[in-house]
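Annotators were shown the component list below and the corresponding predicted structure, then asked to write short factual statements about the assembly.
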Amino acid sequence: MASATHYSVEHENLNFVFKSELRKRLIMAMAIGVILILLGCILLMMGIGVADAHHGAGHGTGHHGGGGAEGSGHGFHWTKRLWANLWLNGVFFTGIAVIGVFFVAVQYVAHAGWSSAIKRIPEAFGYFLPITGGLLLILFFIAGHDLFHWTHSSLYEKGGKEFDKILYGKSGFFFFPLKPGSFPFFYVLRMIIFFGGWYFLFMQIRKLSLKEDLETDFNTYLKRPVIYNKLVYISTVFVVFFAISSSVSAWDWIMSIDSHWFSTMFGWYVFSSWHVTGLATIALAVILLKEQGYLKVVNENHLHDLGKFMFAFSIFWTYIWFSQFLLIYYANIPEEAIYFKERLSGHGGLYAPVFFLNIFFNFFFPFLILMTRASKRNVSILKIAIGFILVGHYLDFFMMVMPGTVGANGGFGLIEAGCLLLFASAFIYVVASNLAKAPLIAKNHPFIKESEYHVVL
Amino acid sequence: MQYTSPIREPLVLQGKTYADVTEDICRQVEAAPNPRWLGAMFLSLLALGWGSYTLYRTWWYGIGEWGLNKTVGWAWDITNFVWWVGIGHAGTLISAILLLFRQKWRTSINRAAEAMTIFAVLCAGSFILMHMGRPWLAHWALPLPNTYGSLWVNFNSPLVWDVFAISTYLTVSIVFWYMGLIPDLATIRERAKNPIARFIYGAMSFAWNGSAKTWARYEMVALVLAGLSTPLVLSVHTIVSFDFATSVIPGWHTTIFPPYFVAGAIFSGFAMVLTLMLITRHVYKLQAYITLEHIESMNKIILLTGSIVGIAYLTEFFIAWYSGVEYESYCFINRAFGPYWWAYWSMMTCNVISPQFFWFRSMRRNIYVTFALSIVVNIGMWFERFVIIVTSLHRDYVPSSWTMFWPTYVDVGDYIFSFGFFFTCFFLFAKFLPVINIAEVKAILKSSSAPSVIEKEEKVKAGVKLTPSYNPKSE
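Structure shown to annotators:
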């Protein structure tokens, strides 16, 4: 039964130590991120990287609902690119954090056994939610006008020069119960409810999960797993809440950037992108912890399952991407097709390479790399696939946010690199410091033994 | 080593042994048809007979026999087609996707679900043949080289993709189902006393010898087919949804259709599996194999997919308003409050509201509620397709073309034909083939039949003596 490589939960080194060396490195990385952002801003202020060359042409094509068609002319100010980047990363990392909680919740709802040994890792992701939540909220107040075309009050003045009938028609979605063009009460309220709800439910899950650790006798607990049953209940509440909030937040935070454009699939599209990114991040965290000598119970069988998930949900993302694209392409209704036209040929073709990279990184590479059984059980190959998925889905969100905000003035420069570095290191910092606060393995999870003896054929 | 947590509920009850499994399932195949089966078969044949008459009228006099008109040129035929194809999703989902998710409870229901899948897809196909008007030219749907010059099918049409998707799906499903049957057919062959039965089951089992090598091949093929059929099962309803969504008709053209149709298909497929399995379970006394745990698991999937479908309805409604497209908004308001309001609210009640009962564990584990809701769900899913198809068409671009669709008795009769066909096939299957996969149930017997700690405790409290029902005679 216990082979040479078998590790049991009882022999596990349960505590992760957030070493000061790592702490220092992460703070350094954040500092470098900030410096890169500042340098990028200075360059933009000097006009380097601003698309002067395409000033007229870029705005002409494919700028139907984006920020380019804004109220006071088309004055591009360098701050816009900074705000767009902060927003992009804020939404992207919110996704990773909330998917961590979602993953844990789904495991409880599905009564999954195999994942119980790794569940503390995604559980720590949730702590990043208040940070991105606060940031997005503040950012909306500072930069709402730069990011969201629909926020401009002149669009809602009846008889005014810039009156927009379509936006006026849906103004209730943003401004309810206030006057169209005033304060977007409903929009802000939703943002608070979503982040508040996610974090609140996450805290309930986390609290109960830690409380379960305190059970003294595992066998007595198994006869009446009260805490586990409560966890299943709260997880169900979370999944239901997330089912609605994930779609609506995608409309709010991303779809409304292209204020006139609409797609019923969009909520699920963003979810699928978030989900596979979150899975890849979980797998990466598990692998890195294992390499540090933690999580001995976790072996190639668990990695195999995480690999399967990444493989399957990469295909799922592709399915959603393809269905949305095909239906819009096939019907070719101008109001809808403008979205892809802008990305494929708008802004002087600036975004076309990213458009194709997106599909290559998020479909072809994970699909081919993770196809075989052996590759899903090999740490190095998994890391390569994770790399493609993480970079690919960053590009995916880049494609969603950038054309509608900075348009022809977009690109990947110092600000982009700096923001990504800042957010990634902050995320790792928060996750690592919270991982250190609790045992890495939930030793009283009723299915922990199933996870310990988990074998994938 | 496999370890199963004691808090998991057992999947095989009453302490069945390997011999019990063989005996309990083969008994139904070997016994003479009982009067209840004969009665059910008679009713199915009656429906098939009546349906055959209306089908004859459809083909002899043409589809003018239906209630179609120049505005609504697609109604009951395609509603029934989509409905049956949707039902035909559950079998492969259970066999392939639940296999990938290691859901052991699938072993007791996969055989019957797969058989049902095949019959449902055949029923769906029958509506394609019916609505062609000239079914003898059905092969024109295939990209065959022909003598009329370089005339090919329109590869840009999702209807052609449908032909490819469904025929591939049907083929793979039949192979998958039949392959799983082979070891069980061999078991029946070994037990057969009648030489004719022995010969027939022997021929059908392809000289299965049960050697380790044979089993190894069997498992390999099962895995390959599961891998193949997973994308296939999702592609089928995706492409069915493309039939509508690639058009520019308000109510049809919406990007959420593919995943939402797939969820709806799983929803109705599981409901049909429950309808059939609850009856089979009762008639064949299979309570030890199809336990309340199985029923609860299936009800959870119904709740999940029903809620996904509900969210999709609301998303469509919301975006119709959000888009600011007047025609789209009108289309949805017309669905809910227009002349077909009753179809819309039947759909909403049956598909979105009724599954919400399954939030309660007591409801999920109540056989009567489950049976009633499984039928309600399929009524709702029929109305869903009717609502999508007819309400979008009956308000044409030109208001002078606005009209209503009402079915004729031939429409209804053709639908009854499909029921007759479906149930005739299912009853034949239930009589002459093992309804539960004997080999696969045996595979999980050891790891999943021990009574759980909690159940044991409760039984002891209730004064039940815990002895497994061992069957020494057949051991």
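Statements collected:
1. Chain A is about 65% helix and 0% strand.
2. Chain A has a mean pLDDT of 91.
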